[in-house]
Write a structure and sequence with these properties.
It is an enzyme of class 2 (transferase). This protein is an alpha+beta fold. The chain has 2 domains: about 1-85 and about 190-215, 3-Layer(aba) Sandwich (D-Maltodextrin-Binding Protein, domain 2); about 85-185, D-Maltodextrin-Binding Protein, domain 2. Helices cover about 30% and strands about 30% of the residues. The strands form 3 sheets. A 5-stranded mixed beta sheet has the order 7-6-8-5-9. A 3-stranded antiparallel beta sheet has the order 3-10-4. A two-stranded antiparallel ribbon has the order 1-2. About 30% of the residues are buried.
Length: about 220
């Protein structure tokens, strides 16, 4: 939130909280006709696609995970240059023969033959991971939902591999995991999105044109 406020402030639009830190309403200075609502990053994709907000700042990863056909629902206006994180495939470091997705596919087949069930991959990014693995020919696996501390599931023996967000890779290495050499699924950062589903009046269009001009985005 603070970095978003800084990004807008650098472009002449001042955003802030309207009252206490517990309130969700915000204030906007430097332009008329704009209201600020403070939501969690995970809520913003839904509000955009439902047409309840015109613009929203959230992560690229959340938009593409939560919204099927995301580019038909929202338009990417500007990358904000912070909140960088990569969604990656990672396996145990002791898997010395597994370095690529082809290796992972072979290991998955061998795993099922040996254990009688599919290799488990823990993630909260089911859509992105499923599409990525399909596009790269990896089929013999099952996704296990993990909404927190995903790096620890291999040690806890609830999954054999993971797909998760990382900024530096240090947490993965600390948990004895390695990123596949071709395992980058998505590079994400905080991004300003516009809803394609919201109804726009002539006044709304005029305000949006003024705002995007001030922010220097198309």
């Amino acid at each position: 939130m603070e970095k978003t406020f800084d990004w807008f402030r650098e472009r002449g639009i001042v955003l802030g909280r309207a009252g206490s830190d517990r309130e969700y309403a915000g204030r906007v200075e430097g332009i008329d006709g704009v209201e600020l609502v403070l939501l969690s990053a995970g809520e913003i994709p839904r509000e955009l696609t439902e047409g309840r907000i015109h613009l929203g700042v959230t992560g690229t990863d959340l938009i593409r995970e939560k919204l099927a056909g995301w580019d038909l629902r929202v338009e990417e206006l500007a990358e904000l240059g912070f909140g960088h994180a990569d969604l990656v495939m990672a396996v145990p470091g002791c898997w010395v023969d597994v370095d690529t997705l082809d290796d992972l596919d072979a290991a998955a087949s061998a795993f099922r033959e040996r254990h009688g069930f599919r290799m488990r991959i823990a993630t909260k990014y089911h859509r992105l991971v499923r599409d990525f693995l399909r596009d790269h020919g990896v089929a013999d696996y099952q996704l296990v939902d993990s909404q927190g501390a995903t790096e620890g599931v291999v040690k806890n023996e609830t999954a054999e591999a993971i797909a998760d967000i990382t900024s530096t890779g240090e947490t993965l290495r600390a948990n004895h995991l390695k990123i596949l050499s071709d395992g980058l699924i998505l590079k994400s950062q905080a991004t300003l999105f516009r809803s394609r589903r919201v109804e726009m009046s002539d006044a709304d269009r005029a305000v949006l044109k003024d705002l995007t001009a001030r922010l220097r985005v198309d």
